[in-house]
Design brief:
Length: 130
């Protein structure tokens, strides 16, 4: 499969995963009846599902650093969110304002935006080198 096809297929798959997160764990009708632990676990599973899809699409990309940035960014965010979640679960240390910022961070990384940023960087760098 060509790199261009992998890039677009990766965007499609990431968009589908992001839609599933939004529909089933953020704004869907069933979310109102879902326990917070199940909802948070679903968000975590979606975040973890983003990692291999993006890595697969960027593995042989002309921007050789793209797959490394993808893995490091998602690993860092995953570790950060799990750590904050564990601390909050056992100590209730953090306030709602801070937890809202963590939710925004998770929402960003559960969306197609990080992947699109890498693609835009590739487009800009290829235009600048011509």
């Amino acid at each position: 499969m060509s790199q261009k096809a992998k890039t677009w297929l990766g965007l499609l798959l990431i968009s589908i995963i992001a839609y599933l997160d939004y529909h089933f764990f953020t704004e869907g009708y069933a979310v109102r009846k879902m326990s917070p632990i199940i909802r948070q676990g679903g968000h975590l599973v979606i975040l973890i599902a983003m990692i291999p899809v993006g890595y697969w699409a960027l593995k042989n990309h002309p921007l050789h650093w793209a797959s490394k940035v993808w893995l490091r960014a998602y690993a860092g965010v995953l570790i950060f969110i799990v750590t904050i979640g564990a601390i909050q679960r056992f100590t209730r240390f953090f306030g709602n304002v801070f937890l809202d910022k963590i939710q925004e961070l998770r929402s960003f990384f559960c969306s197609p935006l990080p992947y699109l940023f890498i693609i835009i960087l590739y487009i800009l760098s290829s235009r600048a080198s011509k």
